[in-house]
Amino acid sequence: MIERHPDSSFLVEYASGSVDIAPSIAITTHIQFCDQCRRTVESLQSVGGELLGRASSDPVSDDLLDSVFACIDSGSSDGERFESGKQDFIPAEEENEVISELSSTLPAYIKQFLPAEKLKWRFLSPSLKTATISVGEDVHELSFLKIKAGGKAPVHNHKGTEITVVLKGCFSDEDDLYHPGDFIVRQEGETHQPFAAQNEECICLSVLSAPIQLTGIKSVLNPFLSFAPS
Amino acid sequence: MHIRFKSARKEAPMDEPQYWSACLERVGSHGDREAFTALFEHFAPLLKSFLAAGAGQNSENIEELVQETMVKVWRKAANYNRSQSNANTWIYTIARNTRIDWIRKQIRQNPNQLHADDIYDTEPTVTPHSSLIELRNKRDIGAEIKKLPPAQSEVLALMYFQGHSGQQVSEALSIPLGTVKSRIRLALKRLKVALAENELELEAREEAHA
Q1: Which residues contact A13 (CB under 8 A, 6 or more apart)?
Q2: Residue A90: CB partners within 8 Å, gap ≥ 6?
């Protein structure tokens, strides 16, 4: 049962196009699991359609239609890119750890963002590893997080916002237990220690808007948590 | 800034949405230029004012955006499905994605050739039993949107037309972010946009205080 959703203003921002790439990917990932939010987004896009239909009419240049037809006929412009935009992201399946592990549970949508070569996992602690996904923006870092079955992530707090979408397994922290599809937002300054269920590893998609800081004795690990937007 | 809505909208035929859907279908199935020209004459001026609001002042650039959007409408028309969205909504999402890519290109933030079309998911909800209710809800949005109190429609206009985030709306109107969010929730409730349960609780509390 999904209990954590993006709030309504976040969904409006998403439907109206002001959300950066990495958090947008997190919301699209959430709606792979959550029909409720998927319907909300559809309705919010209908709101956009209604507003467009009610916009004032601003006359366009007389020759614009001709330019559009010229562009259509030449087949040039950037027509091909609609088909080929994803080609850099087609993964070599057998080489990719996450895909082979998750081919049945990972939403098809998220696979397009996996690198063609193997994901580069870094250990953040003995039971937590992370692999950054490059999506071409410089404000957020998008990554996979993997917590070993029964493993605990280091206690950490947030300098910026952290969005986590559970993809597989469950994790809990001081507040709650989270299931696949849950969309969890941690604001600046919140400290928590996530841990995975005993019987299953937990894989999440994570979006960071600033470096997280490990607190307590494990702070020595911080250099490995370098913020690496890509 | 001014968001202009048509004050005296020409009386549209009752079946206007069906008419535009039919045009899109003819473009998609037959490459019908007459149908496309009708779409262009109706939508290009709307797109121009819609896109101009969020993309600066240069009208030449805006027409480039309008052109790019209409070219995409032609190329994607074969994928159009009227049972999923009306023509307004479908063209709106194309314009939104075109604007996102255009803005990203300007700030050179696109090394991976990843486009807004890849980020958003266009698959519709697959719950057949609810589709009738959804169609009705989408019609309600059109009827209710013009009845929204100005404070609420202003927030939506800033977000959809200008591409503002909630934070930017709060700065533009000099009101707290919490007020922006509560206006959004109240507006969505009037538009009968289904919200998650925790949102409904918040909104009930706001109604009680209103």
Answers
A1: A19, B159, B165, B166
A2: A112, A116
Residue indicated by tokens 């946009």: B193
- H-only helix segments in chain B: 16-30, 33-54, 59-76, 87-106, 116-119, 131-145, 150-160, 166-173, 177-190, 197-209
Q: How far apart are alpha carbons B163 and B151 in whole angstroms? A: 17
**CA B117 – CA B101 distance, rounded (Å):** 9
**Interchain CB distance below 8 Å, B85 and A59:** no
Whether A60 and chain B come into contact, CB under 8 Å, resolves to yes
- E strand segments, chain A: 121-125, 128-133, 141-147, 156-158, 162-168, 171-172, 177-178, 183-186, 191-192, 195-196, 202-208, 212-214
Q: How far is CA A200 from CA A75, A184, B8, B143, in A?
A: 51, 20, 62, 49
Distances (CA, A) of B14 to A151, B7, B18, B44, B84: 61, 19, 9, 21, 20
Task: Give me B198's structure tokens.
Answer: 């925790």
CA distance B97 to chain A (A): 7
Contact A45 B92 (CB under 8 A): yes
Residue A212 dihedral angles phi and psi, to the nearest 5°:
-90, 155
Q: What is B171-192 written as a DSSP string? A: HHHT--HHHHHHHHHHHHHHTT
First to last CA, chain A: 33
Residue A223: the pLDDT is: 40
Is B112 in Cβ contact with A136 (below 8 Å)?
yes
Confidence check: pLDDT of A5 > 80: yes
In the three-class reduction of DSSP (H, G, I as helix; E, B as strand; rest coil), residue B98 is classed as helix
Cα distance between residue A94 and residue A224, in whole Å: 28
Q: Distance between CA B38 and CA B22 in Å, rounded?
A: 11
Which value does ipTM take for this structure? 0.87
Give me B146's structure tokens. 């013009």
Which segments in chain B show pLDDT lower than 50? 1-12, 129
Rounded to whole angstroms, how far apart are CA atoms A165 and A156? 17
Q: Is A90 on the interface with B (CB under 8 A)?
A: no
pTM: 0.84
Compute the count of residue pairs across chains A and B with CB atoms less than 8 Å apart: 220
Structure tokens at A58: 């601003």
